[in-house]
Amino acid sequence: MLRRGFQMAVILGHHGTLPGATHLLPRFNPASAFGSSTESLVSRFCQEMTKTKNYALPNASWGPDMLSLYHEFLEKTKTDGWVRVPSFRSNRDHIRGFKLPLELSANSDKSDWRLFTRCIEREGQGFEYVIFFQPSEKKSVCLFQPGPCLEGVPGFAHGGSLAALIDETFSKTACLSGEGLLTLNFNIRFKNLIPLGSLAVLNVNVEKIEDQKMYLSCVTQSRDQQTVYAKASGTFLQMQLEEESSQQ
Amino acid sequence: MLRSCTAGLRSLWALRGRREGAARLSADLQPARRLFSTEKAVHKDWALPNPSWSKDLKLLFDQFMKKCEDGSWERLPSCKHTCTYKSEDFKTYFLDPQLVEGEGLSQAQLFTRGFEDGLGFEYVIFNNNDEKRTVCLFQGGPYLQGIPGFLHGGAIATMIDVAFGSCAAISGGAVMTANLNINFKRPVPLCSVVVIHSQLDKLEGRKLFVSCNVRSVDEKTLYSEATGLFIKLDPKKSST
C-alpha cells in the first residue's frame, strides 16, 4: 500500500513537475483496479478504425520472410485466438474514448505528433513491424524489418531502434494484458547486430503481475532462431485509463 | 559472452583515436579539428543550433561552448550519414564484410540524425576528456512520442545509448554497447530539453562501465537513471 502510494508520488512528481495536476492520488479502487479482463482490453484498444491508417499491414517494402511469417500469424488469428494489434500513427488513436489518468493528461499533444516507432512515413525506410498478441497466454510476437533510416553501424539497425521497438511491444502487451501503461525499468543485452532489411522476431512474455507492476521479457532473434539479437526485460506500472465523459 | 558479442559487433559511436584520413563512421565522436582538416567533402555538422532549438537548449549550448574555451570541454560534431564508402576499418570487425557493402545503403542515414529540424532528436554532446565524462543536451521532438504528450521510452533509451557511447569512447576508442539498464522515474514531456550527464565508473580490461542521469534543465527533476556496459572492440580479432 505504501509502496503504491510512493510510486504514484514518483510518477506525479512531488516537485510539482507535472503542471496542472491538482490531485496527487489517482482515483482508483484497489478492489476493482485492473480488473478489466484481457478480452475487454483487446476489444477496447484493438478496434480497427476505418478513418485512421493502420500501419500493421503488409506493404510493398515487406520482404518475403516478413510476409510469410505475417501470413502464418494471420492464420493463427483465425484458428488459435491470436489478435493482430492495429498500429496507428499516434497512441492517441489507440485510446479513443478514453483519457490518460489526470496526472498525465496535463501535457496535451498535437494531432500531428507521432508515435516514435511510426515516425518515418515512407514505406520500408524506418520501422516496419506488426504485433500479434495471444490473450490467453499474455504473450506477443512482433515481426520487425528495420529500414535504412534506422541505421547505426553501416548496414545494421541502430541498437536504439531495437530498444524502442522492444519498449513499444512491451507497452502494447502490458496494456492489453492488464493496463500496464508506463515503463518503470528497461534492461537490454545486445548480442548480435540486425542487418537492415532483414526480419527480426521479438517474443514477448508477461512473466509476472504483482503490486501494480507488470514484468515482461523479450527475446529478439532471427526467424530460424539461430541468431539471438538481444534479450530484454521491462517493468511497467499499471494505470487505469478513464472513460471520456460526454461533457468535456 | 565476450566472444558472442564480438561475433556481431556494433560500435555505434564511431572510432575515436583513428589516424588522420582514416575511415569515419557516424561522426558523433570525431574531434572538430580532425573532421575539418581531413575530409574532402565537408559534411554538415548537425550538433549546432538551428531554428527548432528552444531557448533552453540554446542557452545551455552557449554555456557549454564557453566551457570549451579553455580546452577542458570539447563539442563533438555530428554527421548525418554514415560514410559507408569510407568504412574500411569497420570491415575488419564484422563477420560478413559484404553486408556492409550492400546496395541501397547509400540512402541509409544515422538513426538519430534522420529527421527534419526539430521533429526528432535535437542534441549536442560535450566531452570532458580529463574527467572522462560527457554532457548531452537533448530536445526530443514531436515524432518521438510515446504516451500522448510524452517522450517515448525508446527515444530516451536511444539517447542514453548515444551519450554512453561518447563517454565510453573517450577511454575505449571503438566501443560497442553490450548492456543498458534504465530506470524511468518520471515521464519526459515532449519537446522539452533534458540534460544527460554520463560518466565512466570503471574500466576492467575491455569492459567499460558507465552510468548517467537524465535531468531537467534546472536540475530539479530527475527523469531517469541508467547504467551501461560497453566493450572495447579488439582490432586483432579477424572478421571470420
From TrEMBL, chain A:
A GO-annotated cellular component: mitochondrial matrix
InterPro entries in UniProt: HotDog_dom_sf (IPR029069), Thioestr_dom (IPR006683)
BP terms from Gene Ontology: cardiolipin acyl-chain remodeling; long-chain fatty-acyl-CoA metabolic process
GO molecular function: long-chain fatty acyl-CoA hydrolase activity
Domain Thioesterase: 155-225
Name by which UniProt lists this protein: Thioesterase domain-containing protein
UniProtKB/TrEMBL annotation, chain B:
Lipid metabolism keyword on record: yes
Protein name: Acyl-coenzyme A thioesterase THEM4
Family, as annotated: Belongs to the THEM4/THEM5 thioesterase family.
Domain Thioesterase: 149-221
UniProt-listed SUPFAM superfamilies: Thioesterase/thiol ester dehydrase-isomerase (SSF54637)
Database matches in InterPro entries: HotDog_dom_sf, THEM4/THEM5_acyl-CoA_thioest, Thioestr_dom
Catalytic reaction equation(s): hexadecanoyl-CoA + H2O = hexadecanoate + CoA + H(+); octanoyl-CoA + H2O = octanoate + CoA + H(+); decanoyl-CoA + H2O = decanoate + CoA + H(+); (9Z)-octadecenoyl-CoA + H2O = (9Z)-octadecenoate + CoA + H(+)
EC number per UniProt: 3.1.2.2
Record's signal peptide: none
